[in-house]
Write a structure and sequence with these properties.
5 domains; 5-stranded antiparallel β-sheet; 12 strands; alpha+beta; Beta-Lactamase; Four Helix Bundle (Hemerythrin (Met), subunit A); single chain; 61% helix
């Protein structure tokens, strides 16, 4: 018999048992439900109504007792209570008369109605100034008669309810016995089937498991004896074919491929750079010795585990992996990509690099994380920075002396110069100024790179920043006939920053806007709030920036459109790099947007 037929038959049997149990349950539950409904319908409504009749009868008696008092307000209240209780008694009496289910109940209800009407008639025919004698000798006996009859009716229904409750209990006991009997027979039947059927399935599967285990140990000569034509037999034949193919592969060039794989792993293992390879599920599939040493982990701690879960307990790994999903910056030397790590008992620098591994369809199937050891380059960079700082410092003094000498030469008190001499000395003076500016920028950059720049933070208003930065530029706007448009949003909050540094940034941006704008051009300087930041924008309608320069203008020594500038306006391309350092030190962000030939906009944001 096929496994499918066997399993299907088992499901049908289970379904039949479930249907049978459900049918019996529904029948017996319906019987219980009918018995319960009968109790509620026949007796509970009458019992509840009789109780309400007794309560209202007590209210009528209490109202008559109150009428014996002399207090006028109490008498009026008692009459109202009497009228309401009388109506309620008659209402519940009607309910009982419409729900007669027990023998003797109809006769008893007639007696109660007759007694109550007699009792009420005596009350209503009694003189309003009722006497104690009348109340005790006439009203109370009638009250007791009505109440006794009500209790008799109540007892009749309670006894009937108890009797029906016993019937319900009997039905419940029958249900328990039948259900236990059916369940026991079903369990016995299923147990017999379970004890016989699984062996037909489990035995060949157990044999298949043993053979698979043997195959996993490279015993490709193992085979399964085919004893049936069902699904297990088909599986056994497929297994035998697989074992034959594996045996063929074993004898082919698989060993060569494994050797090549091991050689590739050995190359990665012995690289000087730290390498971590992740699969599409962010699980570590390879990590070389350098990465393990950097992280202070063993291979078993890292491979085969999710990198994000490991990073929760390893700060260095968290730092490495946090930015793997971000798009690589065009500026490969961005300081955010550097890691400073104590390694091999000395401080070394590593550059983070992420490479997506894609298949033929372009789907990402993994990520290679590389930490490139750039300590040597960093040391050379520091040596270069130190050299530039030293040379700049040494040049600053003679350039200042030359500037002073030129000023003295141009002073009429030293001697009059002819026209050609004045032109030459003026040109020399402008070149010396330009060189002094370049030297100052180089010194500033050296201080920033060395971490020696001191920031003096203070709370200031936007108006103070505006005054410190815009005022020095007004004469330059006027000389170049630049239309300057200033817009500052009202009620901006104060900022905590170094005024001189931020003013330097704004002046640098405004100066660049003037340099790259034609005479008669327009510069717009706006300050506004954007969420939790204050946004500063400098926009001009000058020559603009070519698209290939947009991603590079904040790098060191990068200049654009140099051929269009006079020599006195040329720099070394450090202004924007320094501005970027200043803004990032204030936890802000700076960026540029431009359309070549139509102008540029430089924006930086500072947190409130």
């Amino acid at each position: 018999m096929k496994l499918k037929t066997l399993i299907f038959g088992g499901y049908i049997l289970m379904a039949a048992i479930i249907v049978a149990l459900s049918a019996f349950s529904i029948v017996f539950i319906e019987r219980l439900n009918i018995a319960s409904d009968k109790i509620l319908k026949d007796n509970y409504l009458s019992i509840e109504s009789v109780n309400r009749m007794i309560d209202n009868l007590d209210v009528i008696d209490n109202s008559q007792a109150i009428l014996l008092s002399k207090h006028k307000i109490e008498k009026e209240t008692s009459r109202k209570e009497y009228s309401e209780a009388k109506n309620n008694f008659i209402k519940y009496l009607f309910v009982c008369e419409g729900n007669i289910t027990e023998q003797g109940e109809e006769e008893l209800l007639k007696i109660i109605r007759k007694q109550f009407e007699q009792y009420v008639s005596k009350i209503e025919l009694t003189d309003p100034s009722i006497s104690d004698f009348k109340y005790i000798n006439e009203l109370i006996p009638d009250y007791n008669n009505v109440k006794s009859s009500c209790y008799e009716l109540l007892k009749l229904n309670e006894l009937a309810m108890l009797s029906k409750s016993e019937i319900s209990k009997g039905i419940s006991r029958d249900i328990e016995i039948y259900m236990m009997l059916i369940a026991g027979l079903s369990l016995l039947f299923v147990t017999v089937i379970i004890s016989k059927v699984p062996s037909a399935v489990i035995k060949p599967i157990s044999e298949l498991t043993e053979k698979v285990e043997a195959i996993s140990q490279k015993k490709y000569t193992e085979r399964i004896e085919v004893k049936s034509n069902n699904e297990v037999g088909i599986l056994a034949r497929s297994f035998n074919r697989m074992a034959e193919k594996l045996d063929e592969y074993e004898k082919s060039n698989v060993d060569k491929l494994i050797i090549e794989k091991k050689r590739a792993e050995a190359i990665v293992e012995n690289m000087r750079d730290a390498i971590i390879v992740l699969d599409e599920n962010n699980e570590v599939i390879l990590a070389n010795k350098v990465s393990l040493k950097l992280l202070g982990m063993t291979k078993s701690d890292l491979t085969g585990r999710n990198v994000d879960k490991i990073a929760e307990k390893n700060n260095l790994l968290k730092n490495i992996t946090d930015s793997r999903e971000q798009k690589k910056s065009e500026d490969s030397e961005n300081s955010n990509n550097y890691l400073r790590i104590v390694f091999n008992d000395k401080e070394e620098f590593f550059l983070k690099d992420y490479t997506n591994i894609t298949d033929a369809n372009g789907k990402t199937i993994g990520i290679i994380i590389a930490l490139k050891n750039v300590t040597g380059f960093k040391e050379l960079d520091e040596i270069k920075s130190g050299f530039i700082a030293t040379v700049s410092h040494e040049l600053k003094t003679p350039l200042a002396a030359m500037n002073m000498s030129l000023r003295l030469i141009q002073d009429p008190r030293v001697g009059e110069l002819n026209k050609e001499q004045k032109r030459l000395t003026s040109a020399m003076k402008e070149e010396v100024k330009r060189l002094l500016k370049m030297v100052n920028e180089l010194l500033n950059l050296s201080k920033l790179e060395a971490g020696g720049e001191i920031y003096k933070y203070q709370e200031v208003t936007v108006d103070e920043i505006r005054d410190a930065s815009v005022t020095p530029m007004l004469m330059q706007f006027e000389q170049n006939k630049i239309k300057f448009d200033l817009k500052v949003e009202q009620d901006l909050p104060k900022l905590k920053l170094d005024v001189n540094k931020i003013a330097w940034v704004i002046i640098n941006l405004l100066n660049n806007a003037v340099r790259y704008s034609k005479q008669g051009g327009e510069i717009k300087f706006t300050v506004s709030r954007e969420n939790n930041f204050i946004k500063f924008s400098v926009k001009d309608n000058g020559v603009g920036i070519k698209p290939e320069y947009i991603g590079k203008i904040f790098q060191k020594f990068v200049q654009v459109n140099k051929a269009n500038l006079e020599s006195q306006y040329k720099g070394v391309g450090l202004g924007l790099a320094i501005a970027k350092e200043f803004i990032e030190a204030h936890k802000g962000d700076i960026y540029a947007a431009s359309e070549y030939g139509k102008g540029s906009e430089f924006v930086f944001k500072l947190p409130v």
